[in-house]
Amino acid sequence: MNPRFLAVNIDCNFDYSFETERLAAAGIELVPRKAVTEDEIIRACADADAVILEGAKTPMTARVIAALPRCQVIAKYAVGVDNIDVGAATAAGIVVANAADYCTEEVSDHAVALLLASARKVMSMDRFVRRGEWAGFTKAQPLRRVSQLTLGLVGLGRIARATARKMAGFQMRILAADPYVAGPTAEGGIEIVPLDQLLRESDLISIHVPLGAETRGLIGETAFRSMKPTAIVVNTSRGPVVDQEALIRALREKWIGGAALDVVAEEPLPASSPLRDFDQVILTPHTGADSVDSMKHVRRTVVESVSAALTGYWPPFPVNPKVAPRSGLKPWSEFRQP
Ligand code: NAD
Questions:
Q1: Could you tell me the distance, in angstroms and rounded to a whole number, from the CA of residue 66 to the centre of ligand 1?
Q2: pTM
Q3: Within this chain, do residues 130 and 264 fall inside the same structural domain, yes or no?
Q4: Fewer CB within 10 Å of terminal CB in the chain, N or C?
Q5: pLDDT tens, 301-310?
């Protein structure tokens, strides 16, 4: 093979033979070069036509991006691109590509699982039974009929809509707050309302916004104080969207009824975190997206994104579609994977 392009993978977490083979067919050599710090990434990617990454913390800062002279595309095995300075990439003419739809089903399934487990207090009951306290369920009460509850979706993008579609079968009232979605929307009977109304009226609150300047700490002390004392907050988006100190106070001082978190401010959750001590909190280790199927899907999308961008086409999910690319790109719909 005489590759025309070089794609550098800077996270290198698994065996990339699938990607290597498929990219080679498009004339692209995939090289793993593990790089963690900004300086390491700059050195590793100096000759890269494409940069591929997985890590939620990999620092694709403005400084790193300014030092990528050949790069046409940064592709991430993820939906959230909060660790990539998308503004700097846009200014530099670099397309940022995510895998927007690879885990919509998995994360919405996970949100539904956390919502129902919280509403039915499944984890507390399980602990009572294991401790031999068969009648302990009385401590986990009161339970409410799910169809009598109101579900509030913070953000109404792909994952929230899939969550609403699945929860619609439980015949709850469903509210959503999303400043970028004009209401009312008829889809699944979702009522679009302002965030403060959603926080006041919802029994179950499920968060589905991207992490950014506008959403960091969006659910903080004021939000928690405005919720019902029985409200459950489910977060499958990004940890810092919730002000974790405020959440801990809200749980400790019983401003809210509980929480279910797939994501937390610091991951992995530190051993000393008080979140581990609350009976009314469910914790999962940022596995909302995980399944064999979503992994296959994300790998295929990353290959398509890099192959397309380097051979003259838009990737399927550009995060910065208004970028003026370093070389002209034809529509994604015309791309055929070699
Ligand atoms: P999406 O882009 O389809 O939807 C995000 C929605 O949030 C959009 O409708 C947007 O308008 C809305 N939004 C933006 N700012 C808002 C604000 N201030 N208030 C209310 N709404 C706002 O994204 P998605 O596919 O639904 O994913 C949502 C988030 O879930 C991702 O950004 C990612 O961080 C997270 N995620 C987590 C996992 C996991 O493993 N737990 C996996 C995938 C994605």
A1: 27
A2: 0.95
A3: yes
A4: N
A5: 999 999 999 9
